[in-house]
């Protein structure tokens, strides 16, 4: 959901407001109509270039997903981003401990020595 505050002269858009929107507001005889997509960028980055929307694709690189095997998941990200985190069954990021979980510089997650407890939802 995108919330815009029209109480000031300009609406405030925050980085986490990335969204498609269609909104109309009438305030003090002034009609505001906006349509389109918002893809805010970090205000600390100065640029005049248009940025494409962020797309994320997770691919399985390993083929054997049995107990004791190693799982490799690749996170491909297109668009402007700063940090990639991996999540397993929650909103708490996985931590690379190099024993069970390892996150490589190319955003690939490796899960060593799979157990039945490793079954679930992996997101990046």
TrEMBL record:
**PROSITE patterns, per this entry?**
IG_LIKE
| Domain Ig-like residues, every copy | 53-124
Q: From which residue to which does any coiled coil extend?
A: none
Q: Which Gene3D superfamilies match?
A: Immunoglobulins
Pfam families per UniProt: Ig_3 (PF13927)
Q: By what name is this protein known? A: Ig-like domain-containing protein
